[in-house]
UniProtKB/TrEMBL annotation, chain A:
GO molecular function annotation: DNA binding; DNA-binding transcription factor activity
Name of this chain's protein: Transcriptional regulator, GntR family
KW DNA-binding (keyword) present: yes
Organism: Lentilactobacillus kisonensis DSM 19906 = JCM 15041
PANTHER family for this protein: GNTR-FAMILY TRANSCRIPTIONAL REGULATOR, HTH-TYPE TRANSCRIPTIONAL REPRESSOR YTRA
InterPro entries assigned: Tscrpt_reg_HTH_GntR, WH-like_DNA-bd_sf, WH_DNA-bd_sf
Name of a matching Pfam family: GntR
Keywords: DNA-binding, Transcription, Transcription regulation
Classification via SMART domains: HTH_GNTR (SM00345)
From TrEMBL, chain B:
One Pfam family this sequence matches: ABC_tran
Name of the featured protein: ABC transporter, ATP-binding protein
Coiled coil feature spans: none
Domain ABC transporter, residue spans: 5-227
Amino acid sequence: MKFDDKIPIYYQIKNYIYGRIITGKLVPGEKIPAVRQLAVDLTVNVNTVQRALSELISEGILESKRGLGNFVTEDQAAINQVRHKMIMEQLHAMYENLHNLNVTDDEIVQYLRQYIKDRRTNKDDQHN
Amino acid sequence: MTNTIEISNLTYHKNYKSILEDINLNIEQGKTVGLLGENGAGKTTLMRLIAGLAKGAHGTIKIAGQDAVAAKKAVVSFSEQLDGFNPSIRIEKIISFYEDVYPDFSVDRYNQVAGFLQIDEGLRLSALSKGMKEKLVIGLTLSRDTKVYLLDEPFGGIDSMSRKKIIQSIIKWKAPDAVIVVSDHYVSEISSILDEVVIIKDRRIYTQKSAEEIRSQYAEGIEQYYESIYEGNDMDD
């Protein structure tokens, strides 16, 4: 994984793990790699990984079991909440960016509909 | 947190020329620190002073509370460039030399690091490529069991795959309470493993900052922040 050096790395590690959980690459109850292994895999500082994991634990996304390691929560409601949060963040960024270009709310909806329609057609084209 | 390195009022002159002026620096236990600065800024000199390899400075340097040179040498592992060895020496001989000289050198650990970095011990020192020699230096440096590891520009002129391997070995074999200081004049590759950066400019410590703080406070990369200091755009003003 490549990090953006302008954004705190612990934050990017959190988003990376959220993403793995939301997309099902990490399933509820699954053990995540040890701190040092994660640090080596992601080429980041152990303390930074530790900070990200501590926050995920206090948010209830990960569960720390003494002596056993860290596990993905089995609380589906918590996972849904994270998914919702991630979606809202993306929407928020898109909305802000378009508003900064003086695009109105109605136009945003219209463009988004058209965009999705186009993407679907393109996808169908690719399959044919 | 306890400080592993404590430097106060350090000044170093060589042949009447000022090399370092009024250095005050504390580094906490367990931190990985990037020591950044232009060539000639005094990075290597500072490291050699910390390691007890350069003498004649004014001021104090304490490592894990110890002030005496012999005591410091026992708790600091410095990335020697192996210049003192005959170029025709075989790598395995260098390893036995380290084992003899440093009671804390672990052959077991060396073999693990060397296996990871794929170092060929059968070769002679003169036959090593730049990248391979750097890997050997890192392997030897990390295989001592000390409080402080000083890696002086470990990435000079080597390919990106070797660089990545070296960085991974630093993460993999760093003891939780050990301090690692890595000096470099360009940072993008190591910035993700740093807790802090210390920038030397004009023979002085210009700043010491947490890497994550630079990212969150200035929305800048470490490289950018460092360059802005050298270009004179002081972000603190």
